[in-house]
Amino acid sequence: MESYKKEIAVLHEKNVQSSINEKTSSLQVNLETLKQENFRLNQEVQNSKTDYVKDHYRIFSGTRHWICVGKACIMK
Question: Which residues span the domain enclosing 29?
Answer without folding.
Answer: 2-75
